[in-house]
Amino acid sequence: MINDKQGEIILCKGIKLDKNYENVLSYSESSMVSLCDSNKIYRGSNYSFMGDNNTINVEVPYKDAMYANYIAFKNPKFGNKWFFGFVNDVRLISPLVTEITWELDVWSTWYGSFDVGKAFIEREHVADDTFGKHTIPEGLETGEYVIKSETSSTELTDVCPVVCGTLDPNADPTAADGGRTYSSYCGNRYESLGYYIFKGSSMNTYDGGDQADAIDAYIKKINSRFSDDGIVSIFMAPRKMVGWDATDVWTNFTAGYTFKDALAVFDHTNPSYTDYNIPYTFTDLEITRPTTYGSYTPVNNKSYCYPYQYINLTNNNGGNAILNYEEFSSNKPKVEITGILTPSCSIRAVPKNYKGLSKAYNDGIQGAKYPICSWNNDLFTNWMTQQGVNIALEYAKDIMTIGAGVASGLATGGIATALGAGLASSGITGILSTMAQVRQHSLVPPQARGNTNGGDVGAANNKLTITMQLVQVKEEYIKTIDGYFSRFGYKVNEVKTPNLNSRTQFNFIKVGGMDELVHGNIPASDLEKINGICRKGVTIFHNYTNFGNYTISNPIVTP
To answer: pLDDT tens-digit profile of 269-287?
Structure first.
């Protein structure tokens, strides 16, 4: 038979648990009793059975009981089990008796008695915070970004002019091939053009002035010996790409000037590659993943992932790609830069060891086009070169025509008639026409060839290159974001068993939808309340001493 006078009560003050269940404890029943005992106002026994009205009279003066906010009791109906509750009201009954109204703390009462299953977990403190493991978007405000640092390829800004043409300046224009270069395959690309770089006799390294004189001499030589279409383009290109080396063999093409073929294609007499690689590979760009935002060091590794920091890969001419640090296999992300020598140059920058690929071509960018240079093309000289033989024949033909006309005129009517006959035979008219055509060409100013493109401004500002920029949110934003992760963990959006004890100080969990996380042999109404607590989101503290302290160090529990 149950003795109604076997009930025991601990009336407490200053207990920091709240009836909204924002924060709870992962304490066992015995630990909760010890906590209550250490914060007791009163502990008594021999109390009668407490019914459903959730009130009990205790022999405690009101002046002491008025500060009570928590209660622990044993109900003889349930044997030795302790129940815990929040004090809702304290009423004076008599000088030595106070009425306590309370409600059950379902979490503390049944923690350890319910089973935790699997449910859709929206958020939690993860048990493995490896960098890059958790990247589900959080939807947090990032504010304006800042560029913390950047690194650029200096090899792409060290440039020289290249002449692209069909004619070797030392070739014989009377040869069967007209002095044209031989076509061949260069790598996997068909090539029928020559790419020439120039220097003067005294130049050992790049010198824009001396080089300009050499190119001018080349253009004049081509124009005087060949047709104007021998020069296809003049453009700027990285010196690394054209194999600029003062120790190479440079060929004289006119007094004081030398040139070399910048593109080693198959030699038509000996089909084999030379020292030029297709494509040319420049030195990799590299930028180290940072560990701070200004003076602040985040404690959550998700704070180092996109969109809180990332790499902006840019060609400084409107082309860019966002690269995520967490997708690289190393803390020192690298970008490979390759190029093909062609008018304006084709440059490609590709991240290495990115997204599981050795080279992630789809995540790279094209380099900005290098400037096409303008040059003066003397049409009169070119025309005279092309038409020299024909002009001589026309003069001879016209003189013969005049002679025939004069002879005919003399036979019919004298000198005047003869002159008229000559003119009528169009001999002089042909000469005048020929001379007029020559005059017409000579009056045409040297024609400007080539054009400009977006790379001109970049080249002028020494920014025609590939740049890796470290982009971060501002320090004030990352402090807020990192603090949010410390307080509420990460969004995981996964059906799983949540981590209730993976951290040393506290764990936050939030169950999605109407999923039921807990079950067990406890009253149904209390079970539903506990599931509701988990759906709302709850922080489970493991040490009452630090209860409610969200800024305390909260490392992962070592297995």
So the answer is: 443 434 444 688 999 999 9
